[in-house]
Write a structure and sequence with these properties.
binds adenosine monophosphate
């Protein structure tokens, strides 16, 4: 669990179905959220009460990440629809900016073990779905 305080700054990369919901939830808790997406229409998913900042751009552009003040961020949540983009930004957040809390979404389960070692929390949608289906079938 991450203990956020009023000074916490959170960067969300990808404002799709998952990123927008997370951004809305964190904003409801009065946290300081910046969300970036390369497609400006994605921001339509943000709620009317979203109080954070949203920026259109390609998050693989290191200059954009600097403009977003990634160096001040203590939590980055990377949930674009592309594993390689998510992994790249996770590594930048870890190796260059030493960000404390890094969460990335990765569709390909085989890539997970590498990032566990780096302290990057990896969400694997296919594994989560598999576990839920098993619970329904076997009651596990
Ligand atoms: P979803 O699959 O619904 O969770 O949406 C993924 C989101 O990631 C979409 O809104 C894409 O526009 C966004 N996205 C994909 N690649 C990038 C990127 N390089 N930089 C910023 N946003 C991206």
């Amino acid at each position: 669990m991450i203990n956020f305080d009023k000074n916490s700054q959170i960067l969300i990369v990808g404002c799709g179905r998952l990123g927008a919901n997370i951004a809305n939830n964190l904003s409801e808790k009065d946290l300081d959220v910046v969300v970036v997406d390369k497609n400006k229409d994605s921001f339509n998913k943000l709620s009317k009460t979203f109080s954070g900042l949203y920026v259109e751009g390609d998050a693989t552009d290191i200059n954009l990440l600097k403009e977003l003040e990634i160096y001040k961020v203590n939590t980055v949540i990377v949930v674009t629809d592309k594993d390689n983009v998510n992994i790249l930004i996770g590594q930048i957040a870890n190796c260059i900016y030493n960000i404390k809390n890094i969460i990335i979404r990765v569709y390909d389960c085989e890539k997970k073990c590498v990032y566990d070692d780096l302290g990057i929390k990896t969400i694997l949608p296919s594994l989560l779905s598999e576990n839920e289906v098993k619970k329904i079938i076997f009651g596990e």
